Amino acid sequence: MLACDLGYGSTKIFGHSGGLVIASHVATDSRSVVHHTAIKSRKPPMEIVTGEGSFYVGLGAHDWGRPVENLDLDRFNGTPELRALLYGALSEHSHRPIPEMSEPDLPKGHIRLIVGLPLTLLSGQAEDVRERVAAVKSFLKGAHSWSVNGRACAITVAEVLIASQADGTLFDYLLDDQGVMTPAKKREFKSEIGIVNIGMNTVDLLVSEGGAIKQKFTAGDTRGVRRLLQLLNTDDLYSLGELDAQLRAGALDVSSRLPTWQREILGFIDDQWSRQFRRFARVVCAGGGAILLSDALLKRFGGKVYIPDDPVISTARGLFKYALMRERRK
After folding, report:
1. Greater confidence, 316 or 17?
2. Span(s) in the chain for CATH 3.30.420.40
């Protein structure tokens, strides 16, 4: 089993051999490459070739080709750029010391996936949500083939389990690395636990009590980190991927716009939870935005707040822990 978080900012994979994160930057490979100049050329990013074309993926992709930036929910139906990102992450993960391209009870080259989706995709009329989930499963399940930097790859996804990204954050907090809930966490599990997941495109709020969702406290929005980047990109000089790469490298000064975005995020949280978060046993904050807003979140939630050691991988790691728990219960 592999856990997969197909985030707008980063694509995350987590399994027995640990976690992997690649920036969700995609560009079409449509330009010739210049060689033998006095100016040093950077190492090219990963190149993924599928039946739908050739793509650069990961950091640096937007320096090498035409940026492809799709922030619509339809991307989860298996758009060409999302396939390229998934294949890039699976290719990188297959090089781990404990490859997980096969499982003991599955044929060689077959895997199972548990995938986290944003709450905005899982909200609405029950029939609409079922259709969206079915579309995601249809894209993922079955045979996949591609090449990475000229190396042919193939894999078959035998089973797909869908959960919310917020579920992953919750179970990352509640479960240990073996997917076990300690007695102390079991007691906390019975209480209300708030989840704040701030990703590149989405902000998810979820409250769980004894494993059941409190619907009145649960909501999703699209004011993630990309909103901060858009505020900084007033002249539209950069792609979001280029600004994201600068942010990751610590080369982007966000001080002028961070307070505005911070107020938007805290305002959204306040609209949903008001002062009622004070009754929660814990507020778990994850996603790349939790790093940027860590001081503000600590100030707002005080001693109730918990930020994972790695807020970016937390969702995928939690989904994998949840899968381990399910397997053990079977």
Report:
1. 316
2. 2-165+318-329, 183-311
